[in-house]
Amino acid sequence: MPYTTITGIGHYVPKNVVTNQDLTAVMETSDAWIRERTGIEERRYIDRTKETTTSLAVEASLRAIADAGIDKEEIDFIVFATLSPDYYFPGSGVLLQRELGISGTEIAALDIRAQCSGFIYGLSTADQFIKSGMYKKILLVGAEVHSVGLDFTTRGRNVSVIFGDGAGAVILEATEDKDQAVLSTVMHSDGTYAEKLSYMYPGAHGGYFIEKYGLEGFDVEYDLENNQYGGVFWNQDMLDQARVYPHMEGQAVFKMAVRKFPEVIMEALTKAGLGIEDLNLLIPHQANLRINQFVANTMGLCDHQVYNNIMRYGNTTAASIPLALSEARDEGKVKKGDVVTLAAFGAGFTWAAAVLRWGK
After folding, report:
1. pLDDT band at 228 (very low <50, low <70, confident <90, very high)
2. 129 Cβ contact partners less than 8 Å away, ≥ 6 residues apart
3. Band of the pLDDT at 225, cuts 50, 70, 90?
4. Element (H, E) at 96
């Protein structure tokens, strides 16, 4: 059975830099407040009339394709991880196929909706396809555009100051060399806490889960009498009550993340037959610098063993790991033969990790 290796990698971020100071013009916040709680100094936002989640993915993909030294027509499968697709449907995978100009190949495109854990879920999925021999050259992308869906008021500041836009991509191919391959992947979820970090409206639930679980603070009014055959997916009350923005209970997310991160990292290392002493570089999902620092301290890792770039880009959810991995490679922080662990925790809750030995 072959192994899976990364033969190409690339990332792309929009040119628009938005600093913490810039956000003080639209909400009550400060540079010190944001840095203290998140470690973020700035983030990137798209040009709303010229860029989308898919267009960012195109740029990252072209760089990964060039880095791998292959022709885009050689790609035989696309895996696209995002929580901010261009359309509710169809998924962004087919849009990426079209924008890359490879629709004629009629290859399959799979969308992954595991939020912050999406890239690792996608990596695990692609790894199985390559090991089975079904696909030979897979394009795996994580791309996000958060800036068009955030509440840029004081009411929404706890969430809105955190997120940014960006994309990262890798080309995955088969190899017989275990010394330059994905060594293990592990994935978990617990839907018990689904609403702790969620984007519930618009949606098809019609208030069902809110009533079933006695959730507070999520209600909207439904005029079912006058709109017998609709009105539960989308209505004006969702706008009036500002339900159309992400919801996050920060403390609940933090507490779960700092517990699950070390667990899943050690699980992935153990599955790969390695220990924490073998780790050269940890690239965690860039959710919050304080979470990453807490995890590093808990696991006894030195600063040079953990790569963070949330200071420059904010949280780019599914894009954060490939973006950080690409930058780390460009900066010489990842070298051939290094043991690299990727780890993520996010909405769902979902969490996942992967261990690979770098081969490029």
Report:
1. confident
2. 77, 135, 138
3. confident
4. helix 92-99
* C-alpha 192 chain-centroid distance: 21
Domain map (residue ranges) of the chain: 3-178, 182-193+249-357, 202-242
Chain centre to alpha carbon of residue 91: 16
| Domain 182-193+249-357 is found in CATH 3.40.50.2000 | no
How many CB atoms sit inside 10 A of residue 81's CB?
33
Q: Is the pLDDT of residue 67 over 90?
A: yes
Mean pLDDT for the stretch of residues 203-226:
92
pLDDT for 331 equals 97
Q: How far apart are CA 276 and CA 226, in angstroms?
A: 61
In our burial notation (b when 16+ CB lie closer than 10 A, e otherwise), range 256-290 reads bbbebbbebbbbbbeebebebeebbbbbbbbbbbe
Q: Can 3-178 and 182-193+249-357 be said to share one CATH topology?
A: yes
349 upstream amide cis, omega within 30 of 0: yes
Q: Which residues pair with 80 in a beta bridge?
A: 111, 141
Alpha helices in 222-343 (DSSP H): 236-240, 250-271, 289-298, 310-313, 320-330
- Do 339 and 301 form a contact (C-beta atoms < 8 A)? no
Kindly report the pTM of this predicted structure: 0.97
Kindly report each contact of residues 92-97 with a partner whose C-beta sits within 8 Å and lies 24 or more positions away, as own/partner.
92/53, 92/54, 92/57, 92/143, 95/54, 96/54, 96/57, 96/58, 96/61, 96/139, 96/141
Phi, psi dihedrals of residue 170, rounded to the nearest 5°: -135, 150
Catalytic residues: 116, 285, 315
Does domain 3-178 fall under CATH 3.40.47.10? My reply is yes
CB count within 10 Å of CB 31 equals 16
Q: Residue 247 has what pLDDT?
A: 95
Euclidean distance between CA atoms 96 and 85, whole angstroms: 11
Sheet of strand 182-189, all strands in order from the earlier edge strand to the far edge: 182-189, 350-357, 339-346, 281-284
Q: Give me 21's structure tokens.
A: 């100071």
What is the Rg, in whole angstroms, of the alpha carbon atoms belonging to the chain? 20
The predicted structure's pLDDT at residue 316 = 98
